[in-house]
Amino acid sequence: MSNRVHILNEVKETYPTGEALCFQRVVYLYDKVAEVDPGFRFMWRNKLKNLKVQRGGACIETLQVARKLIDEMEKQLGLCTGKV
Question: Among candidates 25, 26, 59, 22, which has minimal Cα distance to 42?
Fold first, then answer.
C-alpha cells in the first residue's frame, strides 16, 4: 500500500552546511483506503530545500535541538508547552 504525506506545519533548524532539520506536523494519506494518520515527524532538507528521504528516519544530533523544534511547533500551533 503506497501513501502520501501532507505537511501541515513545519519548523526548522538550519545548519551552516545549508541543510535543515525539520519537525513537521503531517497527515499520512493512504491509497485505496479511506484512512488517514495524523502525527509528527523529523525530516532533513538539503541545501536546495528538498526533503531527504532516509531509511531509519532523521538522525538528530542532540536532544536540545529536538526540544527546541518541538517547543517552536507548540508555539506555532498555539499549544501550551507545559513550562512555568
Answer: 22
Give 8-20 pLDDT, tens digit per residue. 999 999 999 999 9
The string of pLDDT tens digits covering residues 40-72 is 999 999 999 999 988 777 888 899 999 999 999
pLDDT at 84: 42
Burial of 78 (0-12, 13-18, 19+ CB in 10 A): exposed
DSSP for 6-54, written as a single string: EEEEEEEEE-TTS-EEEEEEEEEEETTSS-EEEEEEEEEE-TTS-EE--
Distance CA 67, CA 83 (A): 12
Domain ranges of the chain: 3-77
Read off the pTM: 0.81
